[in-house]
Amino acid sequence: KPTASHPPALPRHRHRELSVDYYSKKCPQLESLVGSVTSQRFKEAPVSAPATIRLFFHDCFVEGCDGSILIETKKGGKKLAEREAVENKELREEGFESITKAKALVESHCPSRVSCSDILAIAARDFIHLAGGPYYQVKKGRWDGKISTATNVPPNIPRSNSTVDQLIKLFASKGLTVEDLVVLSGSHTIGFAHCKSFVDRLYDFKGTKRPDLNLNTRLLKELRMYCPSSGRSSRATLPLDATTPFAFDNGYYRGLGSNMGLLGSDQALFLDPRTKPIAVEMARDKQRFLKAFGDAMDKMGSIGVKRGRKHGEIRKDCRFFL
Ligand code: HEM
Ligand SMILES: [Ca+2]
Ligand SMILES: [Ca+2]
């Protein structure tokens, strides 16, 4: 029985816990409303899938999954919102548009009842599934945050030249394990990157004036054609998973096995003894990857969740605070 020295084993933040049926009374049609928008958008503009998944990642890692990434800087305002940070400059418009459309439809049925952060979590899951990835239940009950500041972004978003050590530390600071790091990086099985995100590997790796030796020589030749050494400003984008950039499969990990990782941070996962065994396992077993990915997204979607009026709000327009 509970005593002062043995308190009951209740979670300390039960009020912050998310649940699958959170909107069963407040907005029972929520998932089908969001689903109608995501399936439509996937047909019209398939890049909405990688765009929205990355948007969710960049939301959760800065101030938690609270829709802070969706806020627009006020016209003439001095304080820049997260969106304005360099780390967020390449977030595609298609992701923001998908959330704006879904929110508008949800507002017309369930006004002021559903947070933007929950809509983003559902839309990301939908797009993963539409692209061939796992379908997992999304837990809901997030409130939208009241803070969005560009200077909060750099310390919380990993860079394409981050070391495995830095990646492990950053993910650990969000409550994510080494396995979560490797599995969530599997998102790079779809989507594209600009030349500037990997051009150093093509011409001047770590100041050596030589390309990265851990880059497949055939891929290197091809990448150099699209990205000249002055490629920092090029608008060209290349697939993160050279084999199947639109299919949510384990092609990304199989690519790492033949030195085809596009970003330094991707290939590094296959070089470090702490992460390589996990990547090898994901390359070997597609079903295992898909299941692990759904579980890891659930964990990522719970980072820094807010509840209640002190720290949160339910926005009407995801781009502006109430
Ligand atoms: C592990 C550390 C990570 C690093 C260093 C990283 C870095 C990057 C970079 C540099 C790009 C290309 C940006 C550009 O040049 O346009 C990118 C794209 C992308 N990232 Fe990551 N990322 C990481 C983890 C993740 C995670 C955890 C997710 C999601 C759960 C994710 C989802 C995506 C997606 C879907 C794209 C493609 C976006 C598009 O095509 O619009 N990334 N990432
Ligand atoms: Ca956020
Ligand atoms: Ca793929």
TrEMBL record:
<dbReference type="Pfam" id="PF00141">
    <property type="entry name" value="peroxidase"/>
</dbReference>
<comment type="function">
    <text>Removal of H(2)O(2), oxidation of toxic reductants, biosynthesis and degradation of lignin, suberization, auxin catabolism, response to environmental stresses such as wounding, pathogen attack and oxidative stress. These functions might be dependent on each isozyme/isoform in each plant tissue.</text>
</comment>
<feature type="disulfide bond">
    <location>
        <begin position="27"/>
        <end position="110"/>
    </location>
</feature>
<feature type="binding site" description="axial binding residue">
    <location>
        <position position="188"/>
    </location>
    <ligand>
        <name>heme b</name>
    </ligand>
</feature>
<dbReference type="InterPro" id="IPR002016">
    <property type="entry name" value="Haem_peroxidase"/>
</dbReference>
<keyword id="KW-0106">Calcium</keyword>
<keyword id="KW-0349">Heme</keyword>
<feature type="binding site">
    <location>
        <position position="249"/>
    </location>
    <ligand>
        <name>Ca(2+) 2</name>
    </ligand>
</feature>
<dbReference type="GO" id="GO:0140825">
    <property type="term" value="F:lactoperoxidase activity"/>
</dbReference>
<dbReference type="InterPro" id="IPR033905">
    <property type="entry name" value="Secretory_peroxidase"/>
</dbReference>
<comment type="similarity">
    <text>Belongs to the peroxidase family. Classical plant (class III) peroxidase subfamily.</text>
</comment>
<dbReference type="GO" id="GO:0005576">
    <property type="term" value="C:extracellular region"/>
</dbReference>
<feature type="binding site">
    <location>
        <position position="244"/>
    </location>
    <ligand>
        <name>Ca(2+) 2</name>
    </ligand>
</feature>
<dbReference type="InterPro" id="IPR019793">
    <property type="entry name" value="Peroxidases_heam-ligand_BS"/>
</dbReference>
<dbReference type="GO" id="GO:0046872">
    <property type="term" value="F:metal ion binding"/>
</dbReference>
<feature type="binding site">
    <location>
        <position position="68"/>
    </location>
    <ligand>
        <name>Ca(2+) 1</name>
    </ligand>
</feature>
<feature type="active site" description="Proton acceptor">
    <location>
        <position position="58"/>
    </location>
</feature>
<feature type="disulfide bond">
    <location>
        <begin position="116"/>
        <end position="318"/>
    </location>
</feature>
<feature type="binding site">
    <location>
        <position position="62"/>
    </location>
    <ligand>
        <name>Ca(2+) 1</name>
    </ligand>
</feature>
<dbReference type="InterPro" id="IPR019794">
    <property type="entry name" value="Peroxidases_AS"/>
</dbReference>
<keyword id="KW-0560">Oxidoreductase</keyword>
<feature type="disulfide bond">
    <location>
        <begin position="60"/>
        <end position="65"/>
    </location>
</feature>
<dbReference type="InterPro" id="IPR010255">
    <property type="entry name" value="Haem_peroxidase_sf"/>
</dbReference>
<feature type="domain" description="Plant heme peroxidase family profile">
    <location>
        <begin position="17"/>
        <end position="322"/>
    </location>
</feature>
<keyword id="KW-1015">Disulfide bond</keyword>
<dbReference type="GO" id="GO:0020037">
    <property type="term" value="F:heme binding"/>
</dbReference>
<keyword id="KW-0408">Iron</keyword>
<keyword id="KW-0575">Peroxidase</keyword>
<comment type="similarity">
    <text>Belongs to the peroxidase family. Ascorbate peroxidase subfamily.</text>
</comment>
<feature type="binding site">
    <location>
        <position position="189"/>
    </location>
    <ligand>
        <name>Ca(2+) 2</name>
    </ligand>
</feature>
<feature type="binding site">
    <location>
        <position position="66"/>
    </location>
    <ligand>
        <name>Ca(2+) 1</name>
    </ligand>
</feature>
<dbReference type="InterPro" id="IPR000823">
    <property type="entry name" value="Peroxidase_pln"/>
</dbReference>
<feature type="disulfide bond">
    <location>
        <begin position="195"/>
        <end position="227"/>
    </location>
</feature>
<feature type="binding site">
    <location>
        <position position="158"/>
    </location>
    <ligand>
        <name>substrate</name>
    </ligand>
</feature>
<feature type="binding site">
    <location>
        <position position="64"/>
    </location>
    <ligand>
        <name>Ca(2+) 1</name>
    </ligand>
</feature>
<feature type="binding site">
    <location>
        <position position="241"/>
    </location>
    <ligand>
        <name>Ca(2+) 2</name>
    </ligand>
</feature>
<keyword id="KW-0964">Secreted</keyword>
<protein>
    <recommendedName>
        <fullName>Peroxidase</fullName>
        <ecNumber>1.11.1.7</ecNumber>
    </recommendedName>
</protein>
<keyword id="KW-0732">Signal</keyword>
<keyword id="KW-0376">Hydrogen peroxide</keyword>
<feature type="binding site">
    <location>
        <position position="82"/>
    </location>
    <ligand>
        <name>Ca(2+) 1</name>
    </ligand>
</feature>
<dbReference type="GO" id="GO:0006979">
    <property type="term" value="P:response to oxidative stress"/>
</dbReference>
